[in-house]
Design brief:
The protein contains 17 helices and 21 strands. By secondary structure, it is of the alpha/beta class.
């Protein structure tokens, strides 16, 4: 089976132009928390090309606007009706249920939510029956769910008690979703993670509650596709309990999105879901290899999921190789290498499409990229990186680097902070969009924001905004992904879709999707600037080359931009590889 190959395709589009009402100004601080309230509606019109735009007639955004430009109300965008209509239809259709802790956009924390939604939509478009099972987090915005209906009330076991549980059905992004809502304190709180309840025990409950719902309702999918450690107990519960009851047909596929999260679990905690936890404290089942010889030894839900699943997938071929060679789970993966696959994630090219993206002030595509210049200037104006009513070539010639990321050690924090200095020294501009979960990291970036956000070249926005991320990808000349390790990475793929040239460290999925421009042995695939070291000098070399190409070789740069925009990183290709795996393990 061939994994991770990128194909080429071109798209077409038209250019759009917003007219926005000017809002009452006041001092707006860039270091803010994301909010959901949006007011002022964006209007749309169609110009022919950028040079004919009435720039002075625009109501350009300003950092002093009462409402930031990414929080204004945008035209409605019903992706439900935008499942690709000319998608390849599969001859053998299957019933697939995803069980997950995250789903974009309603319960999104990181890339996991994007992957689950994108893969589910792609399989739906290929003709398969697909559902997602998700905890009904208290923080989920119910208005984002269409046709939400209570469908089942049942009991599910936890720690000696049968917990009354509701199952709801609704549509999110065109996907049927089953929401599991226990009557206890689980999944209560203002965010997906970090509630006052014990998260591990909550996900153990959820894993069994999903199987219990299938048994109660007589649901027998072909494939139960579980994601990450949170539902690592489900394969164990299925094969050692529910398969002996009434669930005979399903087979289990596990996708590991990040091997750093093991789901460390005490034996008595696993026993809470009705299993005898002590039976799994063996090398060939679920004992956490890191704790062998300790008192007490612990279990790993992710290891148990690997052992008990019919197939295991990780999110790029290079990350597969890396995880077989290093890490606490490498020995387990080596023992199960015959059922272990690496498939590069795709992106939803309906949701991420500069040709139709409603969040952009001007749409564009590979054949007409003038709108990208307007998007860049729009963002520069809105964040105070330029001023005046004239879109000048001087303004556009300043390279704009973006870094959209969780601010965690994995993402190369020391390289991100160094890139700020290097980009400024090179005469470029840089925008960082991301949140930190560690308070020390948060304070470090708050201090950087306080010292740099009023200057002419750097903006650090400590928050997450889906709307702003679309705007930044469209505005960017360069997308920076300097990760220490990266199972797949979506930022570089989305960035290329929007014409941003990637600068990445060669690791995991970054190595499978970005190939260095100066590598003459791989000229056909070359599409960005790659560095291998974890030191600042290595990053400098890649940034220096990117800036030099942008400024001194504009024709070559434009060719790179067109090349990355034509690349087909859609979920349809990736979904086809998952379907092959589903078919290989499905019960005959």
């Amino acid at each position: 089976m061939e994994h991770g190959k990128l194909l080429s395709a071109s798209t077409t589009s038209s250019l759009w132009n917003p007219r926005r009402k000017l809002l009452k100004a006041h001092n707006f601080k860039f270091r803010i928390e994301a909010q959901t309230r949006r007011t002022s509606q964006v209007g749309i019109a169609k110009p022919t090309n950028l040079t004919h735009l009435d720039i002075q007639g625009f109501d350009w955004p300003s950092p002093t606007d009462e409402i930031p430009f990414w929080k204004k109300q945008f035209p409605s965008w019903d992706v439900n009706s935008e499942l690709p209509s000319q998608q390849t239809k599969d001859s053998k259709l299957m019933d697939i249920v995803h069980v997950t802790a995250e789903m974009a956009p309603i319960a999104k924390v990181g890339g996991l939510g994007d992957v689950v939604t994108g893969l589910a939509r792609a399989c739906l478009s290929r003709g398969h029956t697909v559902h997602i099972m998700l905890p009904f987090y208290e923080c989920i915005q119910k208005h984002q769910i269409n046709n939400l209906t209570l469908i089942t009330t049942y009991n599910s076991y936890h720690d000696g008690n049968w917990i009354p549980t509701n199952a709801y059905h609704g549509l999110v992004s065109g996907i049927p979703v089953i929401f599991i809502e226990p009557s206890n304190q689980f999944f209560k709180g203002h965010q997906v993670y970090g509630g006052s309840y014990n998260e591990l025990e909550a996900y153990l409950f959820f894993s069994r509650a999903c199987l219990e719902w299938m048994q109660v309702t007589g649901t027998q999918p072909d494939i139960i596709h579980v994601h990450e450690w949170q539902v690592g107990a489900l394969p164990i519960l299925y094969w050692d309990m529910y398969h002996y009851l009434s669930l005979k047909k399903p087979r289990i596929v596990l996708t590991i999105h990040n091997m750093q999260h093991y789901g460390e679990c005490r034996q008595e905690q696993l026993s809470m879901c009705g299993l005898d936890g002590s039976l799994y404290a063996t090398f060939d089942k679920a004992v956490d290899d890191r704790t062998v010889g300790h008192n007490p030894e612990r279990l790993s839900l992710l290891k148990g999921g690997i052992v008990y699943s019919n197939a295991v997938v990780t999110v790029s071929p290079t990350y597969l190789k890396e995880t077989l060679c290093s890490g606490w789970l490498s020995s387990t993966l080596l023992r199960n290498h015959d059922k272990y696959f690496g498939i590069v994630n795709g992106i939803d090219t309906t949701m991420w499409n500069p040709c139709t993206d409603v969040f952009l002030p001007s749409n564009f595509d590979v054949k007409n990229s003038e709108g990208k210049k307007l998007c860049k200037y729009y963002v520069q104006r809105g964040l105070g990186l330029t001023s005046g009513d004239h879109l000048t070539e001087t303004t556009l010639k300043v390279p704009l680097v973006i870094c959209i990321t969780r601010l965690v050690a994995q993402k190369g924090l020391h390289l991100i902070t160094h890139a700020i200095k290097q980009v400024e020294e090179l005469g470029g501009q840089m925008i960082i969009l991301g949140k930190a979960s560690d308070h020390r990291v948060e304070r470090e970036f708050e201090d950087l924001a306080d010292s740099l956000n009023q200057g002419p070249s750097i903006r650090i926005l400590l928050m997450y905004s889906e709307e702003l991320s679309h705007l930044l990808y469209a505005a960017a000349d360069i997308v920076l992904v300097p990760s220490m390790y990266e199972p797949c990475g979506l930022a570089q793929i989305i960035g290329m879709r929007y014409g941003a040239v990637p600068v990445v460290r060669k690791t995991g999925g970054l190595a499978d999707t970005v190939f260095d421009i100066d590598d003459q042995s791989n000229h056909e695939m070359a599409n960005g600037f790659v560095f291998e070291g974890i030191d600042e000098a290595s990053l400098n070399f890649a940034l220096d080359r990117a800036f030099a190409c942008y400024r001194n070789k504009p024709e070559e740069w434009n060719c790179i931009v067109k090349k990355v925009m034509k690349m087909d990183n859609s979920w349809n290709i990736t979904a086809g590889k998952y379907i092959e795996i589903y078919e290989s393990v499905a019960a005959s």
